[in-house]
Amino acid sequence: MTQTQIKKPKWSGLGVRFISAVALLLLCLAPFYFGGWLWAVLAGLFGGRMIYEWVRMSDPSPRLPAYLAPILGLLAGIVYTVENEIGFSVVAVFVTAFAVAGIQFARSQKEGSSRVIWAILGVFYIIVPTLLMIGMRGNQVGFDTVGFQRLLFIMACVIGADVGAYFGGSTMGGPKLAPKLSPNKTWSGFFTGQALAVLLGAIIGSAVGIGWMAGAALALPIAILSVLGDLFESGVKRKLNVKDTGGLMPGHGGLLDRLDSLMAAIIGAAVCLALFPGIWPG
Fold first, then answer.
1. How far is CA 157 from the centre of its chain?
2. Is 201 helix (H, G, I), strand (E, B) or coil?
3. pLDDT, tens digit, for every residue of 146-201?
4. Are 155 and 134 found together in one domain?
């Protein structure tokens, strides 16, 4: 058998991926339980790291203002979100988008290379879901709070879609889902991931009192969007000729590589809850 014909073992790298995921879970456990500023600080650190990875990935020669402007905008948005000043949070996001666009436009006049679109995209792609995670969790402490249960539900659906796709795709193989964007993803993995996400959604929905049918119904769009979020970031990396956004998490790459699915799911869940508030009262 030639070297090119040797296949990787099934579930290769599973141990490293599992350890990284558990470490991330343990780091989030206490802040997630208490919510409020503790959760906001952790989410802000994650958001700041993802901004760093995005700027480094999308800008071949980044200057300090390219990092500083979106991070300051994120901090302003966090303060307003924790204080429940949602209107000011929205203003902070748009002001930040204008600021980073102005910085990149000024650079393009000097260097002839424009990164305006990438800078603006980074603001909405990272800052908006980070603020939504903080706003959804809220300031109430405990497992029985609406904020804790909603965010736990979303995370469980994303994890279910990811884990189900990983094991289902590795086991069954078959046609590729989007070979030009992510050559390892298969349709079999997509469907097994969706099935596990819907199952978890039904279980958690029943446990928290919204019912298993409502849980399953809400889980499906969240799980689909988590896959689309992963594919979107894969497309961005291919466009920018980048393999990973960083090396912070062994087995996963950068933090942005790990949380891309969750960010898209958070936005989708927020839209679903805004359009159909009766599906999860409170």
1. 12
2. helix
3. 999 999 999 999 999 999 998 888 888 888 998 888 888 899 999 999 999 999 99
4. no
- Tell me whether residue 116 is exposed, middle or buried, using C-beta atoms within 10 angstroms of its C-beta: 0 to 12, 13 to 18, 19 or more: middle
Concatenated DSSP letters for 137-183? H-S--STTSHHHHHHHHHHHHHHHHHHHHHHHHHHH--SEEETTTEE
Facing residues of 186 across strands? Answer: 176
Same domain, yes or no, for 85 and 52?
A: yes
Longest alpha-carbon distance in the chain: 63
In the three-class reduction of DSSP (H, G, I as helix; E, B as strand; rest coil), residue 9 is classed as: coil
> Whose structure tokens read 């390892």?
184
Q: Is residue 12 part of a domain?
A: no
Residue 5 lies in a domain: no
Q: Are 269 and 154 in contact (CB under 8 A)?
A: yes
pTM of the predicted protein model:
0.89
**How many domains does the chain contain in total?**
2
Contact by Cβ (8 Å): 115, 58: yes
Last residue of a domain, one of 89, 119, 141: 141
- Note whether residue 115 is domain-resident: yes
Range of the domain at 96: 28-141
Tokens at residue 49, please? 């790291």
Last residue of a domain, one of 141, 170, 195: 141
Angle at 140 between CA 134 and CA 141, to 5 degrees: 105
